[in-house]
Amino acid sequence: AITPTVTPQATNSDGIVFWEQINQDDTGAAIEVGRFDRGTIMFYGTWDSGSRTLQGSPDGTNYVTLNDINGDAITASADGSFDFVTNMTYFKITTSAGTTEDVDVKLIYR
To answer: Which of 10, 39, 47, 85 is most buried by a 10 A CB count?
Structure first.
C-alpha cells in the first residue's frame, strides 16, 4: 500500500493528504485525519481502464465507499475532483483493474 504524506495547514483541522503514484496493483494506505467539516479529493495521472475509490471509516477497520455532495460514489477512472462532507476519521484509496497506471490522489480537508 502507498503510504500518504500529510501536510498540516493553518489550523490543526486543516490539511492535505497526498498518495503518490498509486498504480493498478497498489492501494492508498489508510490514514487517520480526525474530524473535519468538508473535503475535496482530486485524482490525476496516467489512466488505463482502472479506477480509484475513496473509502472512509469511523474506526479504522470497517470501510465504506464515500459519496460526493451530489450523492454519487467517489470513484474516478479519469482525472477529476469531488467535494464531500463526512464524519469519518479514517480514509484510504482502493484500486480496481487497469494496467500501466500511475495515479496521484490529493485529499484536502478543513
So the answer is: 39
